[in-house]
Design brief:
This protein has 96 residues and is α+β, with helices and mostly antiparallel strands. It contains three helices and three strands, in the order αβαββα.
């Protein structure tokens, strides 16, 4: 971000847009910082260019970011469920 705000970066390259940030607030901070510095190009290896100054493109980027945040939440839920199930099994194995 420092290089972006200093005007040293013309484009940010990512593998997929949803890998840029996994939390919507982080994405919004990135977009605001990039736009205020005049950097409006995001390039995804998978999807091509996103113009951060285009409201429709920005909406799609935000949706992808929200989906990524949901995936993180689902992963956390699955891990917690698995750990609880393992704990219950260990407790059941304790001789009474």
């Amino acid at each position: 971000m420092e290089d972006i705000t200093r005007g040293k970066v013309d484009v940010v390259v990512v593998y997929k847009e949803d890998r840029l940030h996994r939390q919507p607030i982080e994405l919004e901070q990135f977009v605001a910082g990039a736009k205020s510095a005049g950097m409006t190009k995001l390039y995804s290896v998978k999807s091509g260019f996103t113009d951060l100054s285009d409201s429709a493109a920005l909406m799609i980027l935000r949706i992808k970011g929200d989906v990524a945040a949901h995936e993180v939440d689902q992963l956390r839920d699955r891990v917690v469920r698995k750990k609880r199930a393992q704990a219950v099994l260990r407790i059941a194995e304790i001789p009474h």
